[in-house]
Amino acid sequence: MCHKVIFLMIVLAVHNLVAILQLKITHERDIAFEGNPVNLQCVIYPTKVAPTEELTWKHNGKVLNATNTLNTANTILINKVKLGDAGVYSCSNDLAESMTSLVVIKPTRIVNWAPAIEMTAGSSFKIHCDVEGDSRLKIDIAWFNGKNKQKPIENDDHFVIENDSLTISNVSTLDIGDYICEASTVVDKTRATVKLTLDEVPHAPILNEIKCHDSPSSVELSPSVEISWSPSENYGPDIESFTILFNTALAPHVWHTAKENIPSNVSTSEISSLKPWTKYTYRVIANNKIGQSPPSEISAVCATKPDVPYKNPEKIKVEGTAPNNLVISWKQMPKTVHNGPDFFYRVSWKRDIEFEKWIETDVHDWKQGNIIINNQPTFVRYLAKVEAFNSIGKSNVNADEYFGFSAEGAPFQAPSNLQLADVNRRFALLQWEPVPFEYFNGFYKGYKVKIWNDIDGVNNVTEMHFVAPTISPGSNLITAVKLPALRPATHNYVQVCVLNRKYEGPFSDVIEFTTLEDVPSIVQSFKAIPFNTTALFLRWEKPTNPNGNLTGYNIYCDQIDGGTTKSSDASKQQQPLFWAGPNATAAFVTDLKPDTKYRIAISARTAAGEGERAINESKTKSDQGTQPPSNSTMPSTETTTPGGSSSTSGNVMLIIGLVTFMVTMVKGAF
Predict the structure, then answer these.
(1) What is the C-alpha separation between 232 and 204, in angstroms, rounded?
(2) How is 602-627 classified by DSSP, letter by letter?
(3) Which domains does the chain have, with CATH numbers?
(4) What's the predicted TM-score (pTM) here?
(5) pLDDT tier at 150, thresholds 50, 70, 90
(6) In Å, how far from its chain's centre is CA 503?
């Protein structure tokens, strides 16, 4: 950095010699810029006659000391000068004094500047140059094109300069590049550069050369290719990476990615692990933040030599699909893995027994995925393998062996000694002797149970399948099953057979059993009908599912007072008021209060207990209603109370059979 020195000299007579005080102020140019260092030094000449008195420094008449900016006895160093440091500085002693003025200027700076701008072709764009500087100085702004940094841009139809801005009209690729704003004063100047690009993808790269490196099959290195390219002139954002694409002669219209995310400063790349007996072509694309470029031209063909297949078919299955056959299937190998001409499969199989020889057949259609071998014994274990060949030779990997079985047949034997182990109202437990595995004639799957009953008849058979968790030799055989959801009090017939994956075997002998009785279902169509002022007439139908032999009906009655029962709720009472016989379908409740609401409940009974109660509410007639005939005209039917005594029609409760005479009497009540 250049410095300018200001000398101020005072001549004094000292002991017949001349002593001179020179004040040097060291800073850029003739002024100091805010933030820069400034050095002020007071030098005495000649040094041999230097006075013994100490120097005194002053700033604008104020004495400076070590606590201020004083560095040494004859030097002041200001590391970062501020506007407040401007003014008159002096150094003096008893013999002389030297003075100078320090001017501090705020430097000119360009602010809020974007180093790069993207534009759309055909649009107009304005670039602003915001400048900060010393208010005492005039700032001039000039614009330059990076292609000619010395000649300022002039106003015309394309470039418009106005105050601190530059407007570019109808932007095209010719405008791409660097633009410079220069801000200057009489004492300093500064520049800032902006790079203008178009917001477009890169142009297609230029493909330079392709080199194929084909390794012989005796060498473990795989074939490879080396590709080199150059980027085209780019008017958009910087290229970030390159991508290499390839296709093959087998699918020339399908392009795959060979390598991606290649750094932008790389222009050569090698691609290895090429497949044998394949014709490759390549192209390159460039990427920036806008997107991908169009692809380069397609390269010349890179053809690799044939080799043996590198794999064998996969997903081998060995199984039978029909009696007396064996099917060996596999996943076909596409042409892309044939590695040479004259591709074919070699299929081998044999019985899985000692000293058995392999049987082979060749399949020359690569699209074929199975062979069917007929006239084989039923459900016999086989070994099989499938190998890939071409004109060069056999696959360079050993083929795995797979086992399977020929087709299944019907099992030979029925389960024996079928017995009823337990029975209750709705479930039964069956058990039998297992069928030996060798009689399954296939893979063990489980058992089938057929069951029917006297009610539905032999034409309404229910079949239940009980499948084992595994179906291979050695599985735990099912020897007992629980039959769910049976009908209570029903005579049932059952037989069992064994299952393999394809067939069912012969059925066992039929055994019979009867489920236990259960409580009946709810009484049907229950109604309580006002008969007169002191009686209600009840009628109902038998339960849909009696679940056994009905032993009678329980009837309960409660008076309802203001929406609540006066006594215990009829739906919850423990003891009925009386019992009706099993054939009853109607009853009277007598000795009731006029114009009173009652809740009546009824349930059917078997030896297993009481069923669900049916509930009905009804109100007796008022005193103004028509009275029914006297009791002497009604048939007297005896019923039983919980205490065991007889009751006639004049008592609280009367149960009678639903006879034609009674139906006729109560027709008016419906």
Answers:
(1) 6
(2) EEEEETTEE-PPEEEEEEPPPTTSPP
(3) 9-105 (2.60.40.10), 109-198 (2.60.40.10), 206-303 (2.60.40.10), 314-405 (2.60.40.10), 416-514 (2.60.40.10), 524-669 (2.60.40.10)
(4) 0.57
(5) confident
(6) 42
